[in-house]
UniProtKB/TrEMBL annotation:
Protein name, per record: Mor transcription activator family protein
NCBIfam families assigned: CD3324_fam (NF040785)
InterPro entries per UniProt: c-mor_Regulatory_Protein, Homeodomain-like_sf, Mor_transcription_activator, YraL-like
Coiled-coil spans in chain: none
SUPFAM superfamilies on file: Homeodomain-like
Mor transcription activator domain boundaries: 16-94
Gene3D superfamilies found in the cross-reference section: Homeodomain-like
Phylogenetic classification of the source organism: Bacteria, Bacillati, Bacillota, Bacilli, Bacillales
Annotated organism of origin: Paenibacillus macquariensis
Superkingdom to which the source organism belongs: Bacteria
Length: 101
């Protein structure tokens, strides 16, 4: 488990709330989720989502130019199934965007 932003309860909680929490948790770690309205999608903060989207666009572009699935597997270190999923997904997105216009 990775703890991204560990904070000591003494530093961030009012004393009465800290005392109340200590009745339930004694020196253990607890995760407090964000409010629903404040949640961001997977990979949005780290930029991973953008990187994967860009990679998938590259894969689809190369495939569209005639590169083989085997070539793409080796170039991107992905399984055949993963490459095919990217191609199908990108085709669907392209089709949907064409239908919207």
């Amino acid at each position: 488990m990775v703890i991204a932003n560990y904070k000591n309860g003494k530093d961030v909680l009012p004393p009465n709330l800290l005392k109340e929490l200590q009745q339930y948790i004694h020196g253990e770690l607890i995760y407090i989720p964000k409010k629903n309205k404040q949640r961001v999608g997977w990979g949005e903060l780290s930029g991973t989502r953008k990187l994967i989207t860009r990679r998938n666009e590259e894969i689809f572009g190369l495939y569209s130019e005639g590169r083989s699935v085997e070539y793409l597997q080796q170039a991107y270190h992905l399984s055949e199934d993963s490459i095919r999923k990217v191609i199908v997904k990108m085709r669907m997105e392209l089709k949907q965007s064409a239908n919207l216009q």
